[in-house]
């Protein structure tokens, strides 16, 4: 008798930026076509959403940052793309990143409830707190609060938003022709919320949304981040930063599931997806060449740039370091930036055993080193899920091309489907129901 395998989930992590720009780091020479503004129509992402829908992905998640940045950046706000992607697809979940630091909670609750209605119950919210002071200044504040306070605020914020979403009883729309009432106000709770950071007196003026509340996604895995996710998230995005270790993947999942249980939730209510960049080719030799091209030996200048980027993420100055010596001892829990992401980079140093140069050459955002033919990559994904226990993978690739998307959706996914490891159809109408199916 053949045992049916537990299926795992697939999602994609990307953003609304000019994908394809500077493929080789040389500037405009590699931009395909002359129209450098066309990406701003969202066409690339809408086409991509169609491909992911055909391959039955759980969701597409658009990350976001609002700061212009020292070197300048261009990106679209992900929110308006949600209904565009949803109307081009049948079952794909569409997740927008929205910061608790800048949206007033009432506005975020109303926007997401409306999006859940217009997408027919297929929207999600990636909760971020934002660390950059530059973003705070753009919104008229002097600087962002410290790491701990950002999470404290986010928890209260999420609580308030959930209470707003819960405010309308399912039968609040009565459409009573005799009284002329569309809504029965007795079935809508007027909140009187007064927390440490936020106040709200009122109710949403939009009915309870199809999923009751949009799918909640979160990505920080510091101590505080883990508690936050365990309390509120439906799905968590995790990268073990090039560690290529099933043990590192399992540690996070086991820990978050245990925390969820301690908060009275079941671990199965949270789907933990690991960020990976599978490199799929017709032969192993071709895949090896792709891999070398993606992770070349870095020049001194590239290492400095990488350090600058990691310093920005951790909010720590790494500019004066000798790149042929180990990293200094750093207390990750004291960092005001992204602790888990910086921690992954730091841990590659093995407590002083590797130099900065070696660490930078090893570091990437793929939790596993996945490359080879579709069958070989599928083998490794299957093995990883057996070792870790679940719940799936979050694919990402930079630079992102139509070709890469197709290699995954029409090369790798059919191989996984053939083995019964991923879904072949959307069973339910709503995003959360599909996410919780297995
Ligand atoms: C996979 C992944 C995706 C993220 N996406 C965003 C994003 O779109 N916008 C943002 O401001 N922060 C983003 N972050 C940062 C997290 O929301 C979080 O603030 C950060 O990881 C710090 O959390 P920690 O200190 O608990 O690890 C992301 C982090 C990870 C690991």
TrEMBL record:
Question: Any signal peptide, and if so, which residues?
Answer: none
From the UniProt record, which GO molecular function terms apply?
monooxygenase activity; oxidoreductase activity, acting on paired donors, with incorporation or reduction of molecular oxygen
Q: What's this protein's family per the entry?
A: Belongs to the NtaA/SnaA/DszA monooxygenase family.
Gene3D superfamilies cross-referenced by the UniProt entry: Luciferase-like domain (3.20.20.30)
Q: Where is the Luciferase-like domain?
A: 41-290
Note the Pfam families from the entry.
Bac_luciferase
Query: Is this entry keyworded Cell inner membrane?
Result: no
Protein name, per record: Nitrilotriacetate monooxygenase component A
**Keyword list, A-Z:** Flavoprotein, FMN, Monooxygenase, Oxidoreductase
Q: Which InterPro entries match?
A: Diverse_substr_monoxygenases, Luciferase-like_dom, Luciferase-like_sf, NTA_MOA
Sites where the protein binds FMN? 64, 97, 147, 151, 222
NCBIfam families per the record? FMN_nitrolo
């Amino acid at each position: 008798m053949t045992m049916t395998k537990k299926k795992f989930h697939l999602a994609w992590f990307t953003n609304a930026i000019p994908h394809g720009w500077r493929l080789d780091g040389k500037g405009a020479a590699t931009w395909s076509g002359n129209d450098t503004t066309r990406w701003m129509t969202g066409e690339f992402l809408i086409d991509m959403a169609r491909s992911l829908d055909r391959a039955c992905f759980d969701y597409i998640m658009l990350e976001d940052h609002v700061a212009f940045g020292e070197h300048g950046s261009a990106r679209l706000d992900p929110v308006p793309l949600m209904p565009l992607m949803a109307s081009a697809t049948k079952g794909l979940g569409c997740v927008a990143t929205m910061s608790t630091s800048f949206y007033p909670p009432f506005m975020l609750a109303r926007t997401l409830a409306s999006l859940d209605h217009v997408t027919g119950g297929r929207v999600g919210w990636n909760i971020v707190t934002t660390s950059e002071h530059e973003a705070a200044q753009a919104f008229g504040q002097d600087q962002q609060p410290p790491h701990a306070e950002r999470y404290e605020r986010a928890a209260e914020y999420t609580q308030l938003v959930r209470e707003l979403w819960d405010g309308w009883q399912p039968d609040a729309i009565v459409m009573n022709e005799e009284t002329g009432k569309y809504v029965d106000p007795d079935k809508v709770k007027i909140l009187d919320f007064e927390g440490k950071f936020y106040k709200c007196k009122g109710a949403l003026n939009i009915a309870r949304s199809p999923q009751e509340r949009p799918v909640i996604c979160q990505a920080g895995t510091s101590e505080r981040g883990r508690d936050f996710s365990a309390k509120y998230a439906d799905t968590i995005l995790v990268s073990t930063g090039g560690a290529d270790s099933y043990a590192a993947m399992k540690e996070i999942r086991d820990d978050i599931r245990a925390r969820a249980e301690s908060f009275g939730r079941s671990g199965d209510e949270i789907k933990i997806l690991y960020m990976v960049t599978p490199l799929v080719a017709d032969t192993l030799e071709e895949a090896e060449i792709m891999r070398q091209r993606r992770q070349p030996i870095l020049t001194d200048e590239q290492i400095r740039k990488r350090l600058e980027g990691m310093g920005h993420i951790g909010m720590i100055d790494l500019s004066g370091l000798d790149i042929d010596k180990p990293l200094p001892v750093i207390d990750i829990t004291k960092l005001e930036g992204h602790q888990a992401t910086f921690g992954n980079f730091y841990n590659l140093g093995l407590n002083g055993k590797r130099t900065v140069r070696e660490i930078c050459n090893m570091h990437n955002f793929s939790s596993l080193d996945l490359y080879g033919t579709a069958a070989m990559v599928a083998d490794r994904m299957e093995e990883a899920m057996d070792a870790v226990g679940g719940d799936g993978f979050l694919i990402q690739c930079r630079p992102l091309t139509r070709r890469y998307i197709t290699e995954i959706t029409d090369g790798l996914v059919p191989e996984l489907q053939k083995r019964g490891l991923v879904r072949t159809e959307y069973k339910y109408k709503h995003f959360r129901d599909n996410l919780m199916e297995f």
